[in-house]
Amino acid sequence: MSGKKNTYGVKSIDLSIKDLDLGKREVAMYLSQFGNIDSDQDMIVKGAFARSIAERGPQSESNRKIAFLRYHDWQHQIGKFERIEEDDKGLFAVAKLGTSTKGEDALRDYDEEIIKEHSIGFQYIWDKMNWVDDDSVKGDGYYRIEEVKLFEGSAVTLGANEETPVLGVQKSANPMDDLKKIEDEISIVTKAIINGRGTDERLYNLEMKLKFLNARLIDHATATVKDFSKLDRVKRINQDQSFDWNKVNELLTKS
Fold this sequence. Notes:
By secondary structure, the protein is α+β, with helices and mostly antiparallel strands. The chain is built from 6 helices and 11 strands. The strands form 2 sheets. The protein has an 8-stranded mixed sheet. A hairpin with a 4-residue loop joins strand 2 and strand 3. The chain is globular. The two termini are 29 Å apart.
């Protein structure tokens, strides 16, 4: 379990849109599927989202409800969820698209089948995940995920890499360029949070975006850094939440 990160994670699902009502601007979808083992060797089971739905679902009293986003970007909300519930298949949701430009664009993309996939933004809960030995599957086992903290569900374009779309970062000849783009975006968001301008909702959205960017930094570091002693130090900085991004960048770029 030491390989799991206590950061903002994402998981995509390639199930087709269940229903679309253009007149009502509503789309029905599955955000997650139960019982299958994904590329992270995770199996999410029914009940994993129950607490999040109760505490932050559409019918909850929370003012920090599960958000409906595009590309996991907390500054790119395209509507709101009207229903989120678990059934035997997975996490089912019905969302209403907004009338903003972003909502209109998403509605057209749904109608033209440009959007076909969805993804969740979440956080693992350490004592709700267990390793199951199973030599019949790749990796000789999987993590049984009994609960996660669900932040949002996102519409993503077919084939999109869910780890990078907020920044439009693609795999490049020089991976350090990708890290620099993430670092620059983190600096912008951090300054905005420090300035403290705007509504509580805006500041919350910025905080969530920072969590997402933070996790993407670790993902890129995992894929590009060969010195794992340095990576462990970066992870500790991340977990402490008292990180200095200049120090992080130095750790990743030093030979």
